[in-house]
Write a structure and sequence with these properties.
With 288 residues, this protein is of the alpha/beta class. It folds into 2 domains: 60 residues, no CATH class; 225 residues, Class I glutamine amidotransferase (GATase) domain (Rossmann fold). It is 42% helix and 12% strand. The strands form 2 sheets. It has a 7-stranded mixed β-sheet, with helices on both faces. A two-stranded parallel sheet has the order 6-7. Strand 8 and strand 9 form a beta hairpin.
Length: 288
């Protein structure tokens, strides 16, 4: 063995040299691991902090206010209220995503359900689920009064339809303020079927009709006529929206159709309820 190799490996025996190399590698590996532990812990802590922050931000965007009607009978004596599919379908879709929902109405307390919407021909899976869900029924029987709502506590507002909202929401000052404040704050404002009637007296910051120049969907004249319900409404929704300057949008009668104009989301009819809820979810993700 040369003098140079003897300096590197002070063991003349080959087996001793192999053992020496192995032990050296083990020692170096131990030292390297020991030195890296603080770095790994620091990195893990940072990742955990970032994940916690992301989860906190995510949870902050998961409170939605549902505004429902308190109106239960139109002037001709017909019972009315919420069209239950338009409440139940979005509720179950949104809560499945972990969203917390508060239900409010002009008067508070029990919110009426349109009896017609409970008939077998209108009983979708979500409607059937609602009528076997005593917990949700209890919530709808104990809504919060609009005057007790703090709009800043919520990230979006949703209005289910039915003929009821056409009678008590267009003139309701608190509802009007909620819509205006949510929209001005960049928070999703969603309405389906007859609920866009609540936009009738809402104003933009410039004092003009809120719907002017905006794409808005809602129950069509042809659907109202086909449903033989023109005597149960104070005005034709499609006509009101057009007269107030909306860029009225519609699809085929009774088919799902929903549209958004910025954070304003509207749907045409009961079949559009889930599409509106999906658009709410998309809007919430975009404003996180």
């Amino acid at each position: 063995m040369s003098q140079q190799n003897s300096d590197l490996f002070p063991y003349p025996d080959r087996s001793l040299r192999v053992t020496f190399v192995k032990e050296t590698i083990k020692t170096l590996s131990f030292l390297l691991t020991f030195c890296l532990i603080p770095f790994v812990i620091l990195k893990a802590n940072r990742l955990d902090a970032n994940l916690s922050k992301q989860m906190t931000n995510h949870m902050k965007t998961k409170k939605i206010l549902f505004v429902v009607t308190s109106y239960d009978q139109v002037p001709n004596g017909t019972k009315t209220g919420i069209w239950i599919e338009e409440f139940a379908s979005p509720y179950y879709l949104l809560t499945a995503e972990g969203i917390e929902i508060t239900i409010a109405s002009p008067k508070g307390g029990k919110a009426p359900i349109d009896p017609k919407s409970t008939k077998p021909e209108f009983s979708t899976e979500s409607v059937k689920r609602f009528f076997s869900d005593t917990s949700l029924q209890e919530k709808l029987n104990n809504t919060v009064a609009l005057e007790d709502i703090d709009p800043t506590a919520y990230d979006a507002v949703f209005y289910p339809g039915g003929h009821g909202p056409m009678w008590d929401l267009p003139e309701n000052a608190i509802s009007i303020n909620i819509i205006e404040s949510f929209y001005e704050a960049g928070k999703p404002v969603a309405l389906v079927c007859h609920a866009p009637a609540a936009l009738k007296n809402v104003r933009s910051q410039n004092g003009e009709s809120f719907v002017k120049g905006k794409k808005v969907a809602g129950f069509t004249n042809s659907e109202e006529i086909a449903g033989q319900s023109t005597g149960e409404v104070p005005f034709m929704l499609e006509d009101m929206l057009v007269e107030n300057g909306a860029v009225y949008q519609k699809g085929a009668d009774w088919q799902s159709f929903a549209v958004n104009d910025g954070v304003l989301i509207t749907g045409q009819n009961p079949a559009s309820s889930e599409s509106v809820a999906e658009k709410i979810l998309s809007a919430l993700k975009s404003v996180q």
